[in-house]
Amino acid sequence: MPHHFGCAVKHFLKSQIQSTKLYGPLREARQWLREARSRSQAWWQITKWHMNLKPSSFYVDSLHQSPGSLESWISLAGALTHENNLDSDTVELLKNHKMLEPHSVTMRYKDELSRTLAVDFRHAAARLTKATTRDVAKEIVQKLVAKKTIFQCRDSHTEGGYYADAEPYMDQQWDKIIYPLIRGYDFSTVLELAPGHGRNTEKLRRLAKEMHLVDVNSTCIEACRTRFGMERDGCQFFYYVNDGNFLSSIKEASISLVYSFDSMVHFDKLVVKDYLTEFKRVMRPGAFGFVHHSNYGAIRPNSNWATNYGTRSDLSAQLFAEYCKEIGLRLVHQRLLGLQDWIGMEGLDCISVFQKL
């Protein structure tokens, strides 16, 4: 009886407090104080990390001894930033990706980044001298951003809800945007990069004899394997899980058409550059490529895809064209996408068509 009475009293007092005019403002003030305390603690952790940084020469010596230390590479970038010895683009990358913070996304992927970039770290450390420190640090920062983006993108697309929601729009996108640009190309052996759960594949398989599906996300490859099997209506399927920026399982000069739609819009600009180099290797002479990519880098270069509008990357149509020229691919056509194409912002994306000569 006393217990029930006590509960009733607590319930009564709580209801009386909640009914007062001050309850709402007090609750909001309490929440604001919690958030302020959290921000203050985070600020102090970041400040303490920066205060404990040593001169860049210390980290150069440290990396000669332990080149695989991710913390030392990031600390080197932080020290160079303090010493005003990094170019503005690299400083902007560090800031936008919050790499100089003790609990950054980069550090959450510490083990995977250290493992996949181990060779790059060793080669970079071997080139570290006082004269080369700035350039080597810039190279490593770019590689860290690119790989981190791959891992984030992979993990954010593990669940299949997005693909199911997007599938009903595929007919309109194919008829209005895609097929008019690729009509008449050689579909005999198609490489589709990042197929998701196969809504583009469903269209392409009706034209192709072979489909080679490549994705960094094993759940997407398994979804496509379940959907299409090894053969469907005369089209053979081949499946590959890759490392996120290379096509090592695809034979040289074997592909008649490269295709990627609604995936590379999230890819870091350097990841796209890696893939363009790989496309050139695997494409047959005269083969075409069709890539849907971000143009948000025209607005915010060196930005973080995870916090950008539509989670678009820092690539631009102009930069894509420059990559094609540098790699030796002929840019055939570019078309910006916007409000009339279902995109929520004018010029947000771009479709680029290119050819291997």
- CATH topology of the largest domain: the name is Rossmann fold
**Order of SSEs:** HHHHHHHHHHHEHEHEEEHEHEE
The beta-strand count equals 8
As a percent range, the share of helical residues equals 40-55%
CATH superfamily of the largest domain: Vaccinia Virus protein VP39
What's the overall average pLDDT, rounded?
Answer: 92
Biggest β-sheet: strands ordered side by side in the sheet: 3-4-2-1-5-6-8-7
Give an overview in words.
The protein is α/β, with parallel strands linked by helices and 357 residues long. It folds into 2 domains: 56-156, no CATH class; 161-355, Rossmann fold (3-Layer(aba) Sandwich), CATH 3.40.50. The protein is 51% helix and 15% strand. The chain has helices spanning 2-18, 23-51, 56-65, 70-82, 88-96, 105-108, 110-116, 118-126, 133-156, 161-166, 170-182, 199-204, 218-228, 269-282, 317-327, and strands at residues 189-193, 210-215, 231-232, 235-241, 255-260, 283-294, 330-337, 349-355. Strands 3-4-2-1-5-6-8-7 form an 8-stranded mixed β-sheet, sandwiched between helices. The relative contact order is 0.08.
Q: What's the structural blueprint in terms of helices and strands?
A:
Blueprint: H1 2-18, H2 23-51, H3 56-65, H4 70-82, H5 88-96, H6 105-108, H7 110-116, H8 118-126, H9 133-156, H10 161-166, H11 170-182, E1 189-193, H12 199-204, E2 210-215, H13 218-228, E3 231-232, E4 235-241, E5 255-260, H14 269-282, E6 283-294, H15 317-327, E7 330-337, E8 349-355
Parallel strand pairs: 1-2, 1-5, 2-4, 5-6
Antiparallel strand pairs: 3-4, 6-8, 7-8
Helix pairs in contact: 3-4, 4-9, 8-9, 14-15
